């Protein structure tokens, strides 16, 4: 009797569940198809070793300027340590060159009093201040002054690779000296990567997506590509996107020295230390700065009469799945990222006129990227019609900001019809032959489409493909 009752109960319960599941599947149809919205660039802002501001940076770049100089003990941000320890630390560094943002109150210089020492900004670290400065320029360039309603459709996507290591070092010193009560209440907000995007959104009241990629040297490119997709999928109409970095400090430089990643052979001639694709390259030169774009949905930009620099047509990203610092010898990650960007753009290989290479001046990385480019673009790469350069000879390697800064260079190349040069390329790597060669002089030419590559530690890769304004 009891057994019969429970058998009936279970059969009834099972029928109810099946009926409920069936009704749910009938109620919920497929989600609405994502809108295919086009994304354009309407504003640019930069803080780089070549200067503060887009105009200053671009002018110095195409004229062959270099922002790399010799390090001094004062550059290491070791104020909490005694002078003897500072000098001892400096002496132990095998690399003594860096690409620093020029500071001062003159035109084209980063004003520390305004962005770091003012009452409004004392709670922000330098990498955040660089992002705020470049964002202000980009917004003015785009002439974007949104209403309260429009702020809900405006978002921020600004990432960084490392953040403020100097703050962490100073805090650690306080712990060692048992001075924990001196720790700033702003310590945690100063070191969090997402606080660059956070401060931008709070300053301007932007209530759209608030995003911060942290993907080593591919950070800036990922931040721009992710922002473009947020507009494409309807999450926002405008995105403030880019990357920022300030890691010229004792611990960061020492860490990269221990990895044997930095240039050490040209400490006495710093402007010759970063030499992408050159046979004499021996490592990258650490740099700092920020690059920010205003991205906008095409019709939105056209309706308000915005200046349009270029259109983002492709974004490819991939992983090497191979090694923490070295790319795979066959360049498969780079190949995948470039191939995905091209496929998404709908362009043919021979429609790409310029590539801003990631090429950081490392012996292995530059060669692998060059091979990957040759593999993807094949005959177009050797035809002489594909212009190629790496701008890191002028700026050094800006780590988390590199992808955004170099994407801006790609956009400016399209807008001005000028391909920037590759500095210090006196003896090209043997991979360059049969018409495949980086430019060593800035060249005026019609650029319909430009590809910008960014590859980072952990095998993370991103490629952005821009085309001329629609």
Automatic annotation (TrEMBL):
**What UniProt keywords apply to this chain's record, in alphabetical order?**
Acyltransferase, Fatty acid biosynthesis, Fatty acid metabolism, Lipid biosynthesis, Lipid metabolism, Transferase
User: Domain of life, per the record?
Assistant: Eukaryota
Q: What CDD domains does the entry give?
A: KAS_I_II
Q: Name one GO cellular component term.
A: mitochondrion
Name the protein family. Belongs to the thiolase-like superfamily. Beta-ketoacyl-ACP synthases family.
Q: What is this protein called?
A: 3-oxoacyl-[acyl-carrier-protein] synthase, mitochondrial
Enzyme Commission no: 2.3.1.41
The molecular function terms in GO held by this entry are:
3-oxoacyl-[acyl-carrier-protein] synthase activity
Q: What class of enzyme is it?
A: transferase
Read off the SMART domains from this record: PKS_KS (SM00825)
Native source organism of the sequence: Nelumbo nucifera
Q: State whether keyword Translocase applies.
A: no
Which BP terms from GO are recorded?
fatty acid biosynthetic process
Q: Which InterPro entries match?
A: 3-oxoacyl-ACP_synth-2 (IPR017568), Beta-ketoacyl_synthase (IPR000794), Ketoacyl_synth_AS (IPR018201), Ketoacyl_synth_C (IPR014031), Ketoacyl_synth_N (IPR014030), PKS_Beta-ketoAc_synthase_dom (IPR020841), Thiolase-like (IPR016039)
Q: Which NCBIfam families match?
A: fabF, PRK07314.1
């Amino acid at each position: 009797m009891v057994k019969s009752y429970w058998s009936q109960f279970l059969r009834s319960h099972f029928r109810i569940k099946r009926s409920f599941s069936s009704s749910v599947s009938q109620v919920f149809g497929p989600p609405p198809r994502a809108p295919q919205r086009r994304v354009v660039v309407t504003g640019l802002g930069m803080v780089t070793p070549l200067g503060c501001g887009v105009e200053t940076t671009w002018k110095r770049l195409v004229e062959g300027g270099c922002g790399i100089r010799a390090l001094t003990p004062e550059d290491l941000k070791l104020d909490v340590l005694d002078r003897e320890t500072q000098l001892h630390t400096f002496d132990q560094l095998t690399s003594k060159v860096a690409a620093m943002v020029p500071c001062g109150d003159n035109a084209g210089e980063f004003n520390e009093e305004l962005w770091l020492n003012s009452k409004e900004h004392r709670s922000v670290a330098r990498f955040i201040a660089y992002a705020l400065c470049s964002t202000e320029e980009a917004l003015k360039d785009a002439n974007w002054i949104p209403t309260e309603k429009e702020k809900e459709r405006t978002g921020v996507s600004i990432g960084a690779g490392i953040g403020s290591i100097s703050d962490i070092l100073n805090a650690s010193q306080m712990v060692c000296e048992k001075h924990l009560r001196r720790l700033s209440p702003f310590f945690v907000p100063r070191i969090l990567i997402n606080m660059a995007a956070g401060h931008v959104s709070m300053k301007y009241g932007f209530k759209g997506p608030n995003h911060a990629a942290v993907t080593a040297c591919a950070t800036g490119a990922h931040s721009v590509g992710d922002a473009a997709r947020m507009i494409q999928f309807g999450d926002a109409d405008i995105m403030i996107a880019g990357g920022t970095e300030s890691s010229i400090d004792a611990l960061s430089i020492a860490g990269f020295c221990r990895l044997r990643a930095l240039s050490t052979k040209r400490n006495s001639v710093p402007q010759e230390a970063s030499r992408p694709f050159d046979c004499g390259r021996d490592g990258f030169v650490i740099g700092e700065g920020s690059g920010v774009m205003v991205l906008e949905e095409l019709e939105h930009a056209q309706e308000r009469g915005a200046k349009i620099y270029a259109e983002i047509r492709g974004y490819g990203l991939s992983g090497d799945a191979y090694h923490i610092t070295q790319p795979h010898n066959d360049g498969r990650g780079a190949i995948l990222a470039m191939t995905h960007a091209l496929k998404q753009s709908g362009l043919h290989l021979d429609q790409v006129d310029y590539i801003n290479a990631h090429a950081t001046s490392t012996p292995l990385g530059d060669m692998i990227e060059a091979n990957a480019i040759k593999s993807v673009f094949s005959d177009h790469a050797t035809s002489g019609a594909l212009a190629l350069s790496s701008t890191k000879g002028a700026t050094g390697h800006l780590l988390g900001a590199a992808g955004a800064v170099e994407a801006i260079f790609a956009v400016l190349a399209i807008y001005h019809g000028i391909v920037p040069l590759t500095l210090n390329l006196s003896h090209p790597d043997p991979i360059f032959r049969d018409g495949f060669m980086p430019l060593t002089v800035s060249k005026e030419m019609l650029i319909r489409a430009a590809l910008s590559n960014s590859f980072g530690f952990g095998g993370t890769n991103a490629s952005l493909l821009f085309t001329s304004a629609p």
